[in-house]
């Protein structure tokens, strides 16, 4: 599917559900992931597709996410029941598969772990994860941006580690098992042990 066609489908889907802000965020993450991905990936287009779709589940508010996930047959951790916001990454993956016919497992993986990362991350997972943190969905500059960009000059892994380490030191609400596993793996891979 060509990128402009996907973009218009994402727009239609999100605007119909009154999520225009999410549309703007998804497009900016997709474009940034594509640019960043050019340095690391054989197929940076996959980063753009994952970015465009990563928050497509914004159509469901937090208080519906447990029920929606159960209906979709998604397994939930207790940490996700505690903080249903985190479930949106898994629901986005389901919507990408069911409504947008995305079947490529590497794209689906990047959508599914864009908030928490996971232990066996790929470069594509890292690119989308980092793009989402740089082009965040809130006002102004992210408080971690300066350190994150310096770390990104070293590597994708260093940037991902910097961000997770920042979260862990700034009152993270719930420690998702995938985030914890990614942190341990990054630490090991970077030789910080
Ligand atoms: Fe997200
Ligand atoms: Fe996002």
From TrEMBL:
Keywords: Hydrolase, Iron, Metal-binding, Nucleotide-binding
Catalytic activity: P(1),P(4)-bis(5'-adenosyl) tetraphosphate + H2O = 2 ADP + 2 H(+)
Pfam families registered for this protein in UniProt: HD (PF01966)
EC number: 3.6.1.41
CDD domains assigned: HDc (cd00077)
Enzyme class: hydrolase
Domain spans labelled HD: 22-134
Residue stretches spanning the membrane: none
InterPro entries the record matches: Diverse_Catalytic_Enzymes, HD/PDEase_dom, HD_domain, YqeK
Keyword match Methyltransferase: no
SUPFAM superfamilies for this protein: HD-domain/PDEase-like (SSF109604)
PANTHER family: BIS(5'-NUCLEOSYL)-TETRAPHOSPHATASE, SYMMETRICAL, SLR1885 PROTEIN
NCBIfam families (alphabetical): bis(5'-nucleosyl)-tetraphosphatase (symmetrical) YqeK
Protein name (record): bis(5'-nucleosyl)-tetraphosphatase (symmetrical)
Lineage: Bacteria, Bacillati, Bacillota, Bacilli, Lactobacillales
